[in-house]
Amino acid sequence: MSEPDTPQAAPVPAVSRAKDHSPWNWLLxxxxxxxxxxxxxxxxxxxxxxxxxxxxxxxxxxxLGVSTTTLVYQMTxxxx
Length: 80
Known about the structure:
By secondary structure, this protein is mostly helical. Helices cover 35% and strands 0% of the residues. It has helices spanning 30-33, 53-76. Pfam families: DUF3311. The chain crosses the membrane at residues 24-41, 53-73. This is DUF3311 domain-containing protein.
């Protein structure tokens, strides 16, 4: 038994949800750009707990990214 031919509905265009044009969003570039500045960690000293600056600065970049993302989220979330 075959199914009857039914006309296909035209696809509905996707609606963009990104309507937030807050200036706080520009802060999200900080954790992207700062780790790209190699002059910050192209050294062996100072050492922190015996680790060269490269290793502990990578952890600091993670903390920078988390704190920046948290700040932007808190400043741009919709209040109910």
